[in-house]
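Dear colleagues,

For the upcoming journal club I promised to circulate an example of a predicted protein-ligand complex. I picked one with iron/sulfur cluster because it came up in last month's discussion. The inputs are reproduced below in full, followed by the predicted structure.
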Amino acid sequence: MVERSDRIAIMNKQDAAKKVFLRSFGCQMNARDSEVVKGLVLAEGYGLTDDPAAADIVLFNTCSVRQHAEDRVWSAIGNIAKMGVKRGTAPKYRGKAAPAPKKIIGVIGCMAQNYKEGIFKKAPAVDIVCGPSEIDNIALYLDEVIRSKKNVLAVSEKKRKEDVYHTGFYEAKDHAYVVISEGCDNYCTYCVVPYVRGRLRHRAASEIIKETEHAVRAGIVNITLLGQNVNAYKCQVSSIKCQVDFQDLLKKVSQVKGLKSLSFLTSHPKDTTNELFEVMRDTPVIKKCLHMPVQSGSDKMLKAMNRGYTVKKYHQLVDQYRGLVYNGQLSTDVIVGFPGETEEDFGATKKLLKSVCFDSAYIFKYSPRLNTEAALLADDVPKEVKERRHAELLGLQKEISRKKVSSCKCQVSGEKDEI
Ligand code: 5AD
Ligand code: SF4
């Protein structure tokens, strides 16, 4: 490891102008992590570019949530690897321009944690593998690779340093995501997140408020609080010996002077309560939008997915929400083709979609993920059946959404099949 003073010296000599291109895959959490990384490398004197060809360093902030997301990353790495030639390995070039030097390639985020050194084996052009919990040290790892020309592997499950959230770098001028918790403790049987992002860790309410205040002061007046399951938020305030829950946090953040709108993502039905709906109803600055993934309309599937609620409970929550929050918008996620899903189970999901009448829904085909409990089950719904069910639900939801005139701009969508 290089000390900070050494790093600055190295940078001043040779690296001050090195340009970083960062491509982000996946969800909003990743989009925010990408901003964190950009803020950190800028603070260390690197430049940013939107053109991968012009970059010295290419970073991929990756997603492991479905196979499709990973496939896109592997192919993007392949394309960048073709762009440059390792020093000393360039073929003779008579009179032609010298080939571009090989770019430093970093794989950060969920795939880094999922595959660890396996990434170097599968993609030898990669120089850095850096898991989500290690991105606070990204500038250090870049320096190390530049200096030593050796690969760097950094994966852990530690809590990030709080400073990473305070670089002040946000892509948008009028909207910011503010992370309230890292990781997830729910262990839905299909989901890789607890394995790649680790156990649930909460940021202190005071830090969340501080970040929001800074953003608002900088003119970014629309804020979305972000966590895999925001409703599980808990923060111990030692000075007053009491716990701040998600409702308390919403009330506190909503008081930030100058804030125009406050939203939040994602709500898990098992932790969502009437109190949340009351706070939404009573706090004008909170957007009347709820993203509450249901995943399936079959109790058998919900149990197999370890979701912790029944269809009846979900319906009750929706009724309470609509009863309390006037004109509240509702969106959801659904998985089709989970192991053991029969036509009857699928029919129950269609029925649920029709009866709940979501403003929008994101429909996914089940994709087995490394380490998850469901990966031990036979992936027994044939591909064609998954595709047919996926298309059917997309069509159904399209009809429902068309009939409803939705004004919900909850900014839920990452790289999803929204309708
Ligand atoms: N296969 C398909 N979809 C998945 N999701 C999470 N894991 C998987 C998987 N293994 C979906 C869920 C979740 C959304 C972010 O992605 O619907 O709510
Ligand atoms: Fe993808 Fe999930 Fe990681 Fe987000 S948290 S990047 S959706 S695997």
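Two points we might discuss: The pocket of 5'-deoxyadenosine (ligand 1) is lined by residues 65-66, 190-191, 293, 295, 333, 335, 364, 366-367, 369 (CB under 6 Å). Residues 170-287 form a domain with the Transcription Regulator spoIIAA fold (CATH 3.30.750.210).

See you all on Thursday,
B. R.
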